[in-house]
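Hi U.,

Before I forget, here's the chain from the pilot set. I'm dumping it here mostly so it's searchable later in email.
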Amino acid sequence: MSDHTSKQFDSELEAVRSTVLKMGGLVEQQVTDAIEGLASGDLGLLNSVITTDARVNRMEIDLDEQCSHIIARRQPTAGDLRMLMMVIKTITDLERIGDEATKVARMAIAINEAERLYMPRVDVMHIANAAIAMLRKALDSFARLDPISAAQVVRDDLVVDNEFSAIIRQLITFMIEDPRTISRSIEILFIAKALERIGDHAKNMCEYTVYMVKGRDVRHISLEEVEREAAE
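Structure:
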């Protein structure tokens, strides 16, 4: 590969990475707007989350096509191929995070249309803030190719999982004590599950970052092994 061709290739890879981060920023805004809309009852904000989903889907398709064309034209190897594989997997998780944000927005609209009658007193803001923090760290780890930070996000997923379990226990108690809360409890359960899934997708993104930098697939291994691999 000539120096000129190599520079073009590097430019193409950097353009792809930059677009992934733009997609990540858009998805992060979806999540934060969905949570803000849930808290405030701002239906305009919630509807904007839903309409933004089509734009996120379009970005995923465009990036997939860009990566496929680069692979076909450049036939990258080693680190460059890992980078493209990481991008393809990352944008899939980002698109799914956008889907989860849309679910939160739809449930929030249903709750507000029901005028919040018989709402169980369950706080989802802790799990929401934890999931958003994971997503931000995941995008930062991707941008900086930082495996140490990525491994921390994998550990943070335990916090989100524990928050989700606690919410389930609270909702069960409310539904047993007052069956009138069942409809709202189910909607809150869907919201909490969507937030827990956002944490899972952020964790996945960080596992891809460790793979990119270290060259080892760290899915389906223990947290301690992931942290050890990232630190070596």
